[in-house]
Write a structure and sequence with these properties.
Layout: E1 3-11, H1 23-26, E2 32-36, H2 44-56, E3 60-64, H3 82-102, E4 109-110, H4 114-122, H5 124-137, E5 142-146, H6 150-157, E6 161-167, H7 191-203, E7 206-208, E8 214-216, E9 221-224, H8 231-244, E10 247-249
Parallel strand pairs: 1-2, 1-9, 1-10, 2-3, 3-4, 4-5, 5-6, 6-9
Antiparallel strand pairs: 7-8
């Protein structure tokens, strides 16, 4: 059976029109990107440049909304009501949608960022608020979320198309959640281990948790964090290993 997967990467997380880091090069190895919307990182110039470059490279563009937390890079939990979460998501997604349309393209998907993503994965009320914001903007947008979480089930419940996401550079707990960044071994820093995890998730539909137990996972899309110290090397090697194993890389 021919296998395929979407490789996605978080991008546009810098400031200043010409401070994009490795983003442009990373786009050569992924099929979709999640662009920061200005609440945790990114500014108008970086967002514009990232969207423009993605379209030139035929890479799908998604919105990457977060809590309004520049100082904490969106990785600090904030207490907000479902209505407030709906509003901040709606605002950010609308901005990215407008940027895409300004360059003759369209917004492809939405993937929440950081603490907002992690909270929604385990809190159905937060997940529902995010999914409703996506639907209010465009019911045809694909909702990216952690596999086997409320992000997926709540979005599907209200009729959105979803993409179950797995991570190339993060470890997993026995319950299928990501190991918190505050704990040791949350990040995978070995390219070889990352490639092994990605291939296991795609070909066997399992991931080996930190406990050693293998748990079921669906990987429609696999994330490589663009802000990682070796993001470009990870993306290049994962891309190569997938092709060597007859796994095609294509957007959903």
């Amino acid at each position: 059976m021919l296998l395929s997967v979407d490789l996605n990467c978080d991008m546009g997380e810098s400031f200043g029109a010409w401070q994009m880091g490795n983003d442009a090069e990373l786009m050569d190895y992924v099929s979709s990107v999640n662009v920061a919307c200005g609440f945790h990182a990114g500014d108008a110039s970086v967002i514009r440049k990232t969207v423009e470059t993605a379209f030139k490279k035929n890479v799908r563009v998604g919105a990457h909304p977060s809590f309004p937390d520049l100082q904490g890079f969106g990785r600090r939990l904030m207490k907000m009501s479902p209505e407030e979460i709906f509003d901040i998501a709606l605002y950010q997604i609308a901005a990215l949608k407008g940027m895409c349309e300004a360059f003759g393209g369209r917004l492809h998907h939405v993937k929440p960022h950081g603490a907002l993503y992690n909270q929604a994965a385990t809190d159905e009320t937060v997940a529902e608020a995010l999914a409703k914001a996506v639907r209010a903007i465009d019911e045809n947008l694909i909702f990216y979320g952690l596999a086997n979480s409320f992000l997926i089930s709540e979005a599907e419940r209200i009729g959105l198309e979803t993409a179950s996401e797995a991570f190339a550079d993060r470890t997993y707990q026995q319950d299928g959640t990501l190991t918190p960044r505050s704990q040791p071994n949350a990040l995978i820093e070995s390219i070889e281990k990352s490639c092994e995890q990605v291939l296991e998730m795609i070909t066997a539909r399992t991931v080996t948790a930190t406990s050693g137990e293998k748990i079921f996972i669906r990987a429609d899309t696999v994330c490589i964090h663009g802000d990682g110290a070796h993001a470009l090397e990870f993306a290049r090697e994962i891309n190569c290993r997938l092709m060597e194993n007859n796994v095609s890389i294509r957007a959903i």
